[in-house]
Amino acid sequence: MAKADIKSMTLAELQQFLAEQGEPKFRAKQLFSWLHEKQVDTFAEMTNLSQKLRQSLSEQAKIGGVEMVERFVSKEDGTRKYLFALENGSIIESVLMRYEYGNTVCVSTQAGCRMGCRFCASTLDGVERSLTAAEMLAQVYTIQKDLGAHISGVVLMGSGEPLDNYDQVLRFLHLINDENGQNMGQRHITLSTCGLVEKMYALSEENLQITLAVSLHAPNDAIRKQIMPVAKAYPMEQLLRTCADYVAHTKRRITFEYAMMQGINDSDACARELAERLQGMLCHVNLIPMNPVKEREYTKSSKERVARFAHILQQHGIETTVRRRLGSDIDAACGQLRRRYMQK
């Protein structure tokens, strides 16, 4: 019989789980605190629980987690890249990004990815499996302990498509936001999607205060279909209409991610077409100088071309920033280290 994954449980679910063992309600809050505030990895450390209860928990439940395999630290900017092993041996990556305003962790939601974006290393071998909420939380908690400093933000932009693992990702969001645990503000959380329309509508109904980032990477369907298979299922007109509906429902600004690829999507004409499509929407464009992936044929745009592209968007009233490249000396782009490790 499989052990219960208690780190993925909400406080109410823990109360029910312990009630079935004849334990009082307040025990659940103690257990939740050990898991998500003190972030312990064993039942033996839960010293305000009786020995009998700790023994019972160890027999019936598990504390889902990840095991650190390797850690790389950038000499350029202090970015840290982690390789973690899951319970079944699958390998995932997480990245710690250090900013003046705090520490942010880029979390993987799946081992691999099935979306097939042509410029991304994460999709090269498809998806192995989706992660549990506990495994997503463990990435944050393990890095926080390794760093010895508070993690104040999370971006769900590691390997995997978060909305392809909708239920566990939603569970993760509620757990990391819980005031009895990590208590991370929703406005410090960004979820990135390649544009799964039905799941975007479902997410809007949750009325969360997170930032939704949509991987657009093209100004039209012709280019987008070349580099993103998902565009064949969801044409740009449908996707942008969904984005507008999301903004109207949640009152939250959307971020559009745009990886700059030389000769593919970085022309002046592309910038003008993109600006026209986004006109009037509460949004922000984040231009990404692409980290090169050796298995892919795409190359990054020049600094001058990125600057020109940004200038055109701004001239048209589109709020635009250029993402600072972090950890380029340690292969910090999604999927690169994982793939290199698996090929050893």
Blueprint of the fold:
Elements: E1 4-5, H1 11-19, H2 26-36, H3 51-60, E2 61-62, E3 67-73, E4 80-85, E5 91-99, E6 102-106, E7 110-112, E8 127-130, H4 133-147, E9 153-156, H5 166-177, E10 189-193, H6 197-205, E11 211-215, H7 221-227, H8 230-233, H9 236-250, E12 254-260, H10 268-278, E13 283-289, H11 303-315, E14 320-322, H12 336-342
Parallel strand pairs: 1-2, 6-9, 9-10, 10-11, 11-12, 12-13, 13-14
Antiparallel strand pairs: 3-4, 4-5, 5-6, 7-8
Explain how this protein is built:
With 344 residues, the protein is α/β, with parallel strands linked by helices. It contains twelve helices and 14 strands. The chain has helices at residues 11-19, 26-36, 51-60, 133-147, 166-177, 197-205, 221-227, 230-233, 236-250, 268-278, 303-315, 336-342; strands at 4-5, 61-62, 67-73, 80-85, 91-99, 102-106, 110-112, 127-130, 153-156, 189-193, 211-215, 254-260, 283-289, 320-322. The chain has a ten-stranded mixed sheet with strand order 3-4-5-6-9-10-11-12-13-14, sandwiched between helices. A two-stranded parallel ribbon has the order 1-2. Strand 3 (67-73) and strand 4 form a beta hairpin. The longest helix has 15 residues, at 133-147. 42% of the residues are buried. The mean pLDDT is 93.
